[in-house]
Amino acid sequence: MTHILQLDASARPGLAGIDEHGSLSRRLTQRFVSGWQARQPGATVTHRDVGGTPPSFIDQRWIQAAFTPPERREPWMAEVLAESDRLIDELTAADVVVIGAPLYNFGMPAALKAWVDLVVRMGRTVDFDPSRPDDPFTPLLADRPRHAIILSSRGGAGFEPGGALAHMNHLEPGLATALEFIGITRIHRVSIEHQEEGGERLAASLAAAERRVDGLIAQLSELYQASREATVPA
Ligand SMILES: Cc1cc2nc3c(=O)[nH]c(=O)nc-3n(C[C@H](O)[C@H](O)[C@H](O)COP(=O)(O)O)c2cc1C
């Protein structure tokens, strides 16, 4: 059965349409997860709410610990790396990573960037071999075909690929680069626009995003079903 990691980065705790000032990106992650579980009742979910409880920022001690080879680490270093280890274990266990990510000031929320800085780690999610200067990095999460779904919401409009403001959107491109670097290369993106304007444009954008989420659930769960059948001996 598939395992989902649901990450929510909105600072707004509730769900748009249900709670006052609720989050649109959380509405999409919730829709993806509940739709996935309806199709695959045995699917399991870990929910990591980085918007509600932001991870730590890396600091000098973290960098020193992370770049000390495990066999030379001092006891304090294990403590400093414990949060990163926990987040990496959650990510490694997932088949599908569903990320609710609002656009904040043209990029990802700081809480999500803090998560990225804790999960992109030498020796755990990526290897570095200086003896191969032309290709020194090996992504360690390429061991199986994980999918990442970036579900975003924006106040304005035109930030989608090909849109008038696409060059000002550093959220999906930045997040996708980090995920690809560690081996998660199957990346899908869905977004809602016009949150600030509201009204019909927001309603149409939300409806289109929800249709796309439903389509992704159908497409990816068929893919996982087919790969499971292919690995089950006849
Ligand atoms: C701190 C902050 C910065 C924002 N920056 C942008 C921005 O750069 N571009 C934009 O279109 N909307 C921006 N917005 C609007 C949000 O993207 C929009 O409210 C979105 O729906 C938030 O996601 P959520 O509904 O999941 O909380 C910003 C909102 C906040 C709170």
From TrEMBL:
InterPro entries under this entry? Flavodoxin_fold, Flavoprotein-like_sf, FMN-dep_NADH:Q_OxRdtase_AzoR1, NADH:quinone_OxRdtase_FMN_depd
Which Pfam families does this one have? Flavodoxin_2
Name the EC number(s): 1.6.5.-, 1.7.1.17
Principal EC category: oxidoreductase
Keyword match NAD: yes
Any binding details for the cofactor? Binds 1 FMN per subunit.
Its biological purpose is as follows: Also exhibits azoreductase activity. Catalyzes the reductive cleavage of the azo bond in aromatic azo compounds to the corresponding amines. Quinone reductase that provides resistance to thiol-specific stress caused by electrophilic quinones.
Q: Which PANTHER family match?
A: FMN-DEPENDENT NADH-AZOREDUCTASE 1, FMN-DEPENDENT NADH:QUINONE OXIDOREDUCTASE
Q: Which family does it belong to?
A: Belongs to the azoreductase type 1 family.
- What protein name does the entry list? FMN dependent NADH:quinone oxidoreductase
The organism is Halomonas stenophila
